[in-house]
Amino acid sequence: MHEERHAETEADQVLLVQRAISRDADAFGRLYDMYVNRVYRHIYYRVGNIADAEDLTQQVFLKAWQAIDRYKKTASPFLAWLMTISHNLVVDFYRTKKAKTYLEAEVTADEPTSSLERVAEARFEQQRLRRAILQLRSDQQQVILLRFVEGYQYAEIASLLGKSEGAIRVILHRALVALRRMLEKEER
Amino acid sequence: MLKKIEDILAQCIEDIKAGRSSVEDCLDKYPSMRKRLEPLLRIALEIREPPDIKPSPAFKVRARVQLMEQIHAKKAVTKWPWFRYTNQVKPIPYKRRFNMVAIIVAVVLAVSALGGGTAYASQGSLPGDVLYPVKLGTEQARLVVATSDTAKAELYLTFANSRVQEMTALAERGRPEKVNIAVNGYDGAIGMAIGKMEEAKGKGLAIADTSELVAEATSKHLPALDEVYDRVPDEAKPAIERARDVSINGMGNALRALARENPGRAAEINLAAVEVRLNRAKAKADEDNTEGVEDAIDDTEKLFRFGEEISEIAQGLGKDTTTVEELVARATSIHLEVLAEVYEKVPEQAKPAIERAMASSVRGHERAVEALKGKGALGNIPEEPPVPEGIPESVKERLSKVKPGARKP
Description:
A: mainly alpha; Rna Polymerase Sigma Factor, Chain: A; 2 domains; disordered N terminus; B: 3 domains
């Protein structure tokens, strides 16, 4: 509960990023405090287990510190930049491990609701979708996760991936078509 | 011009998500595309944010300490701490960088030449004061002469104490706008104290004394931070909340380390901290401050989990945990009494949180009793958890079903 509440305004965040770019470790530490939950959640969604999510989350922040000079050149929010680093690390992780078994891992948490059956059903549907999303092409996966799971706007995703908004819409359409095919195939 | 399906799809998703139209509205608007659009829209709207998954507080602290160490290890020269606060001085160019020790010695000599009184006078300074950088500088000088990791950890703890005193003084003097500086310093000092403690452990050194000091200090910081929290205006409260998180997470790390060497002492410190949090919950309930109650109960739950971890760590190492179990079992009645009082006073929406805390306390009691019975050491400790009379029957019934093994994830 407390972890989510931070004092920083948007202007403070911009200042922290500027200080981090000029190699201020304390400012970077504050950025870590602000974003570690989001980065961890994003990675956990994709790898489905605590040990790898923790390991990759640590790597994201270390890579971000090492590459922070390059952040200056992008116009996307800092968190979105962290998400791209996360994406690349997860892609490398799967490439190295060929860890298809992780697709079976469940992403769960306590969900307050009266109907256990409904929860089980919703969870099952979300797991099916998650498995399908993780089988999409890398760029399609990234667009789907950034738009629907992380809530970024098309313009932000476009800036982050260095593409036009139109191109992002095309990727999104193709991703949804691919998901539809996968889910229909599974139902047959 | 005819719109492409990609654009229509993206627009429909935006409109539906923003509540400007429904799926049917969109499909009606583009009847020729209905067949292609509908399944894609349904899938898109099914994709939701994952459940609220958070990393463990222990991981967050550990990863932060490691990150900072890696950062500092990779930097040729660390910036001086007061530079970080003022953010006005650029790092020294590489050619002009000196050895850290030489700089510190130079600073100490310079301060001595100007008069030791300056350094002395700076000790009472606060963030924002002219002499505050001198105060931080003398702290750095003290670190240079500390030879071992444990000595450094203890020094960082002293600095953390100073930061808490500064927060109190800033609140008292009506300067809450500078509290964030002291909180950042506190955060860094606790992180470094834990980091140094873990480095010493990594070298195979005994850290019982240091971990006890860290656990005791952080447990004392909590009520001090509560007082600051109550005094500062709303805009400064989130910074103090962050300091409280740092404190409680630091305490958890220190207690885990202490549990490896002296689990009884770890349990004592933890239970004392539980009582302080419960008293805070009671005080906030008296003030009709539901949010304050919820925060204190939230902390209590964390401490209950630390208690379980202390037992598990000690048992895993084959330590005698009888003292731990006796302490936990005897503390249950006090915990449940306070929780029952709070339960009566809070509004309906806060009651489930109190009930969860009661269940954690009962679970701790059950586990302790089970272990003591196994050793034939139950003595006069009641087998049944002492659930107070004032609690509603329905709650009592639910509590009676709590099993010792059913630990919350």
